[in-house]
Please model this.
Amino acid sequence: AQKVTQAQTEISVVEKEDVTLDCVYETRDTTYYLFWYKQPPSGELVFLIRRNSFDEQNEISGRYSWNFQKSTSSFNFTITASQVVDSAVYFCALSGANAGGTSYGKLTFGQGTILTVHP
Amino acid sequence: GAVVSQHPSRVICKSGTSVKIECRSLDFQATTMFWYRQFPKQSLMLMATSNEGSKATYEQGVEKDKFLINHASLTLSTLTVTSAHPEDSSFYICSASPAYRASQYFGPGTRLLVL
Model:
């Protein structure tokens, strides 16, 4: 069985602060993919990043960065210099894959973290 | 590329009626699509896997006779909520992916309100 845990239910910060959203996962698959999605009030999921289990390099995209630590089964997401527009619900998700790296497609989502950035 | 649409975006219906939600992959073919449900302030939960040309696979606890899934073509899957009740009010989201990509592409979702 797969499980994704986002222990932080809600986070509130003031604009320009840095904020880290935690994600811990469990899976029996040796190959898997990890994702982060943003869900604004409209409800539509906005894809942020995909990371496969063999790639532990951290990634930076503008104000966003991700820290994948396979040893601790964590895939944390940091927003630097947060802005009001970053306010949303953020989901971490996991999908298993076969030995060849083909994703099974279905995602297991964490509970989500509500991020509120105040001006 | 890799756009998924859903229709309708919002639907209000009376208790006891059936509601059909469409999920279309606009620029790719998808042999498999996924249906998720999200209750207010909760996470997305997988309901079922829609397989083109064969029966859907339902997750534990999801009533297959209540949530009918039809995947008649490589670009269209439909979810029909039969005899809808207020507790079925939720946000329904589908996803699909081209065969060569690891990422799922999500539709914009359908908000169902059953009165």
